[in-house]
Amino acid sequence: MEIYEELKSRGLVAQVTDEEQIRELVNGGKATFYIGFDPTADSLHVGHFMALCLMKRLQMAGNKPVVLLGGGTGYIGDPSGRTDLRNMMTPETIRNNCRRFKRQMERFIEFGEDKAILVDNADWLLDLNHMEFIREIGACFSVNNMLRAECYRHRMETGLSFLEFNYMVLQSYDFLHLHKHYGCNMQFGGDDQWSNMLGGRELIRRKLGEDAYAMTITLLMNAEGSKMGKTARGAVWLDPEKTTPFEFFQYWRNVADADVLKCIRMLTFLPLERIEEMDGWEGSRLNEAKEILAYALTELVHGEEEAGKARAASHALFADGTDDSHIPTTEIPEAQLKDGAIHVVDLLVLCELALSKSDARRLVRQGGVFIGEERVASIDSRLERGRLEDGVKIRKGKKKFHKAVLASGR
């Protein structure tokens, strides 16, 4: 099966501007394509995962990835999917995040001569002359059309700043720059990027003419993949210091039954023939599929050794519950204790098992919290210092484990 047909079979393609042209380019290994990553945190997260896997698949088929770090657009922040203005980052924070992104990307993408290249739009955006830019580039955009774009429509309800309004123009300019300087003929993005990507293609037509425009392709990645990432954004990171390999393994091990085959198709490199054989799996075999998914993705992100350790730790924890050495642990400061104990509600929040005290109370009332093997019966329950000194295992629902221990040096 050719690579474009495989992408479609895996459910990775939602929409393209010219299917025959993209099929010819990627199947022939002639695509020089880019995907952008704004450095909004100091680690990539699961929301980036599908894009990285897509780049890897296309590179393996002979195509050339251009990884674009948003060191310039990061000064603004993409308004897509947002209901408020992003926090402003300092230039040093942006540069640090870009450096960390690059190190993580090297696990997925092969950089080097005649291979993938990594560029940072800070190199051309930060030195732009504002008056020249708005005369040469701003004049190519219709405000009426921009306001109809999905990326802005939601923000209009809560207030779209002029700062954010510039984002589409800058992202479009990125494609123009990459096309002129690197021969980039294709751009990929998630479902919330369609308007921005079409803006880039139209800018190429306005500035370089119909021949250049005809050489460019825009591919929209399947919205389902973006949704999977958004549900975990900010919670499941690719940096092992922020999300341990065990936590990463457990995240994928606990995906919903309805999503497991979808995740395997989109995110793993298992042959499609094998995945089709798994399509009818039910019951315990569905759990087997979840473990296959969890191991494959943990190996891809953290390596074979860490994936093996995470799988072994998961088996040990769920087999007899005795080995809790790999589960995430929170040290509880002495100052959090009152009269030598801590309320379970406060403990759940400190361990990030609940978003708030009200969320913690709801979990307890629903019977979904266990300390050791005992269900927490009341929102007024407290844990004494002695139990925390020894360390306690907390279970939220059936599969979410955490450990709390009193901080040393008290």
From TrEMBL:
Assigned keywords, A-Z: Aminoacyl-tRNA synthetase, ATP-binding, Cytoplasm, Ligase, Nucleotide-binding, Protein biosynthesis, RNA-binding
GO biological process, one term: tyrosyl-tRNA aminoacylation
EC number from the UniProt entry: 6.1.1.1
UniProt GO cellular component terms: cytosol
GO molecular-function term, one example from the UniProt record: tyrosine-tRNA ligase activity
SUPFAM superfamilies in alphabetical order: Alpha-L RNA-binding motif, Nucleotidylyl transferase
Subcellular location: Cytoplasm
Class of enzymatic activity (EC top level): ligase
UniProt: L-tyrosine binding residues: 34, 167, 171
Motif placement: 'KMSKS' region: 227-231
Binding positions for ATP per the UniProt entry: 230
UniProt superkingdom: Bacteria
UniProt motif 'HIGH' region: location: 39-48
Keyword Transcription regulation recorded: no
Domain annotation Tyrosine--tRNA ligase SYY-like C-terminal: ranges: 330-402
Reactions catalysed according to its record: tRNA(Tyr) + L-tyrosine + ATP = L-tyrosyl-tRNA(Tyr) + AMP + diphosphate + H(+)
Keyword Repeat belongs to the record: no
InterPro entries listed in its UniProt record: aa-tRNA-synth_I_CS, aa-tRNA-synth_Ic, Rossmann-like_a/b/a_fold, S4_RNA-bd_sf, SYY-like_C, Tyr-tRNA-ligase, Tyr-tRNA-ligase_bac-type, Tyr-tRNA-ligase_bac_1
Subunit structure: Homodimer.
HAMAP family: Tyr_tRNA_synth_type1 (MF_02006)
Family in the record: Belongs to the class-I aminoacyl-tRNA synthetase family. TyrS type 1 subfamily.
Physiological role: Catalyzes the attachment of tyrosine to tRNA(Tyr) in a two-step reaction: tyrosine is first activated by ATP to form Tyr-AMP and then transferred to the acceptor end of tRNA(Tyr).
Protein name: Tyrosine--tRNA ligase
Organism of derivation: Anaerotalea alkaliphila
